[in-house]
């Protein structure tokens, strides 16, 4: 119940914020005119009783009331449709914008590691079309309540006991509420299976995966797993719907019994002469409307319940614990050492830390290579340096300034990066690169300079419209790039910020050949000077790693070795072993100690 009230507050508050005049008109006049519509029955009663008793004044007033209310109701119905459609569109756009802000706004990204957050986000992605119609569901149910209240008041004049008739709708309303609750709980429980089903479908229909799916004969396996995930998600939903349908049927029986009893009382009053023919018409008319309204009750309440549940999911996602701390108002120095002191990090829900007691000093202007086995914590370290996660314990400082005292968004504004799982912005080329620095988005000179610095100028030269080429297969006229071409654009995007404090390259050239990666790092090294940023490179290619000023070796979440390429080879530790395995891929066997010294 509390979540429903929170959803209603959000919905009404959003409507008032995006268009207060329209919202007030719809929220006030719609229920009011639905109450006034009951006066049609009163006008009809006066008209019939006046004609039967030759009281022409009463008949005239009845006709005027009937005609006036009918015109007002029909005119409002035409006007309110346009008002509501415009309002619903604005509400939907506003909630879409707020959802994007919740998921992609400033701050940390730890909540994206939480399965509960991901399940809720997946449900919202499936239901986001309901944002724009949730307000209509609220208004229609308010109109329904107004009709029932007006009917109860008017029926009192025909027979006191008939005023109780609308109350017998309550068991039906409660049954609908229970049915919707069961279905929503079943959908929430099946969200993980739905997420798995959609992932399987996306992979099975992806052109990039087509070769391996056929080569390994995985089509049937994927289809079977897709069907199993669907059964896992849909089975509980169907059970919930069946239980709810039985409850709704019981509610209908109660209402039907009350309605028949009321009609019996009316018929007896007419035969006994205690009720007029007009009163009989009034009761039959309102009873007919009650039956019609009750027929739509199941659908309207189900619609409202589902809409409020969807908005409730939005509230839940917005209120989900996130690290949105602003840190403080401290400024970020221009240049300095980046120091990690006793830094550790553990992902939510995990039993062991990803990083433990990391002590590092990354000198100002240096190029640092981070190496280690898969799962050693390299990408976690990069995320911490970028300010995307806050350390579970320990301190990260830049030029002596504790970054916990700096707004994460301010620090992130001083960082540029190219990640292993880079984003493919399906925009025009100039925009896909330019978003790396929004203040220079429309600066063609800056974009072209970034393309050259990132080694992507050759990619643009092959495109049909150059910088104005639309990228991406989701656009009918879009041009699809190869993985390596997309990666070069991502690298160019990382060069848009001309004076960052920190450059992060997490497997930045995984889709490129070794020579291209070595050339990439050579370009970064060539740009080094007294005011250069700290550059951190994560790579498995030692032709790249060996060029770094400092090499950091991670193993099981701990820093086990630091030094230069030559120094680490001389120590004969884990780095030397990894280098030997790497070299063995290119020669008949691992290099000897003497050979290592030569290659160093």
Automatic annotation (TrEMBL):
SMART domains: AAA (SM00382)
Keyword Disulfide bond: no
Keyword Kinase included in the entry's annotation: no
Broad class of where this protein is predominantly found: membrane
Location in or out of the cell: Cell membrane
Cross-referenced InterPro entries: AAA+_ATPase, ABC1_TM_dom, ABC1_TM_sf, ABC_transporter-like_ATP-bd, P-loop_NTPase, Type_1_exporter
Cited Pfam families: ABC_tran
Membrane-related topology note: Multi-pass membrane protein
TM spans (from-to): 27-48, 55-77, 148-173, 245-267, 279-304
Domain ABC transmembrane type-1: 148-302
Keywords: ATP-binding, Membrane, Nucleotide-binding, Transmembrane, Transmembrane helix
One MF term in the entry's GO annotations: ATPase-coupled lipid transmembrane transporter activity
Span of domain ABC transporter: 338-581
UniProt-listed PANTHER family: ATP-BINDING CASSETTE SUB-FAMILY B, ATP-BINDING CASSETTE SUB-FAMILY B MEMBER 6
Protein name, UniProt field: ATP-binding cassette subfamily B protein
Record lineage: Bacteria, Bacillati, Actinomycetota, Actinomycetes, Pseudonocardiales
């Amino acid at each position: 119940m509390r979540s429903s009230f929170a959803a209603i507050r959000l919905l009404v508050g959003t409507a008032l914020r995006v268009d207060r005049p329209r919202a007030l008109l719809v929220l006030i006049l719609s229920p009011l005119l639905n109450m006034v519509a009951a006066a049609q029955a009163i006008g009809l009663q006066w008209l019939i009783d006046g004609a039967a008793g030759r009281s022409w004044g009463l008949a005239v007033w009845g006709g005027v009331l009937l005609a006036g209310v009918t015109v007002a109701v029909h005119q409002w119905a035409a006007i309110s449709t346009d008002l509501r459609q415009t309002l619903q569109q604005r509400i939907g756009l506003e909630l879409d914008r707020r959802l994007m802000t919740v998921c992609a706004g400033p701050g940390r990204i730890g909540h994206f590691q939480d399965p509960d957050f991901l399940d809720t986000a997946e449900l919202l992605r499936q239901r986001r079309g309901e944002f724009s119609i949730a307000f209509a569901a609220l208004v229609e149910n308010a109109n329904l309540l107004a009709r029932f209240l007006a009917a109860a008041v008017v029926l009192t004049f025909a027979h006191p006991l008939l005023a109780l008739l609308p109350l017998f709708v309550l068991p039906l309303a409660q049954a609908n509420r229970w049915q919707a609750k069961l279905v929503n709980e079943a959908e929430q429980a099946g969200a993980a299976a739905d997420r798995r089903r959609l992932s399987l479908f996306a992979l099975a229909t992806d052109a990039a995966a087509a070769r391996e799916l056929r080569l390994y004969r995985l089509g049937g396996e994927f289809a079977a797993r897709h069907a199993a995930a669907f059964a896992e998600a849909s089975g509980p939903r169907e059970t919930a719907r069946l239980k709810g349908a039985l409850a709704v049927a019981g509610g209908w029986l109660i209402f039907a019994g009350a309605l028949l009893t009321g009609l019996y009382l009316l018929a007896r009053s007419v035969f006994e002469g205690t009720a007029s023919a007009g009163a009989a018409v009034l009761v039959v008319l309102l009873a007919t409307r009650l039956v019609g309204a009750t027929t739509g009750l199941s659908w309207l309440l189900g619609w409202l319940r589902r809409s409020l549940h969807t908005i409730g999911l939005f509230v839940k996602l917005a209120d989900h614990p996130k690290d949105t701390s602003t840190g403080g108002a401290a400024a970020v120095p221009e240049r300095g050492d980046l120091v990690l002191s006793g830094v550790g990090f553990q992902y939510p829900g995990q039993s062991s830390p990803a990083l433990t007691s990391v002590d590092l000093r990354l000198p100002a202007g240096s190029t640092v290579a981070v190496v280690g086995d898969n799962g050693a914590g390299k990408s976690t370290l990069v995320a911490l340096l970028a300010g995307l996660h806050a350390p579970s314990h320990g301190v990260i400082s830049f030029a002596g300034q504790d970054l916990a005292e700096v707004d994460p968004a301010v620090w992130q504004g001083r960082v540029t990066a190219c990640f292993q799982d880079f984003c493919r912005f399906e925009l025009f080329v100039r925009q896909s690169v330019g978003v790396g620095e929004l203040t220079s988005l429309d600066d063609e000179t800056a974009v072209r300079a970034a393309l050259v610095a990132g080694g992507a100028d050759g990619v643009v030269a092959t495109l049909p419209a150059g910088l104005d080429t639309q990228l991406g297969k989701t656009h009918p006229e879009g041009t699809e790039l190869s993985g390596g071409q997309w990666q070069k654009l991502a690298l160019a995007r990382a060069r848009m910020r001309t004076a960052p404090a920190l450059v992060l390259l997490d497997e930045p050239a995984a889709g490129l050949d070794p020579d291209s990666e070595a050339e990439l790092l050579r370009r970064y090294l060539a740009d080094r000077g007294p005011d250069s940023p700290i550059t951190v490179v994560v790579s498995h290619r030692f032709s790249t790693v060996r060029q770094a000023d400092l090499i950091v070796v991670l193993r099981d979440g701990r820093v086990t070795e630091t030094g230069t390429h030559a120094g680490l080879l001389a120590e004969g530790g884990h780095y030397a072993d990894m280098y030997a395995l790497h070299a063995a891929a290119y020669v008949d066997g691992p290099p000897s100690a003497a050979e290592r010294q030569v290659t160093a």
